[in-house]
Amino acid sequence: MKALVAVSSRHGGTQGIGERIAGVLRTVGVDAEVRAPDEVAELEPYDAVIVGSAVYLGRWLPEARQFVERHAHGLRVRRTWLFSSGPLGDPVVPAGEPPEVETLATLIGARGRRVFAGSLAREALHLGERAMVRMSHAPYGDFRDWAGIGDWARQIAEELRTVPAAH
Fold first, then answer.
1. How many CB atoms lie within 10 A of CB 75?
2. Which CATH number is 90's domain given?
3. Is the N or C terminus of the chain more exposed, i.e. has fewer CB atoms within 10 Å?
4. 25 vs 97: CA distance, rounded Å
5. Are strands 48-56 and 2-8 parallel, antiparallel or unpaired?
6. What are the C-alpha distances in Å from 123 to residues 56, 85, 108, 157?
7. pTM for the full model?
8. What's the average pLDDT block by block, 10 residues per block, for the chain (167 residues)?
């Protein structure tokens, strides 16, 4: 069983979530690799795909959206999940997922999707991003729920063990 975790991350927070998901999958014998969406030319080697994107200004990053659209047919015939990372704070703001994720999930027949809180480090941002953070009153910090991320990855692993591949 081979799984791709395709992650579009601007400053590494979402990449960390993808790494955690792949790590959990590996503990149960899934050969999982994490790659940037624009590094993936074809899906043929993979039985399952998890696509994740950071959310900026309420949208997935273009590389993640384009990956799903470009590989829609291949994703439809594989077990595929989507995740978003971006809400900040406790409770997280904004709540919910970007509206486009429902459209992408429907396009590919995603088995599930999740929104995870993200992280925001001041030192990782350029001047323009800091100004946007100031204007939106977004809090700095790491709000990722590692236990929740691990639980979701274990649910995926269980489904990969019990449901036969479609292709």
1. 24
2. 3.40.50.360
3. C
4. 24
5. parallel
6. 17, 19, 37, 35
7. 0.88
8. 95 93 96 97 97 90 97 97 85 78 97 88 68 67 90 96 65
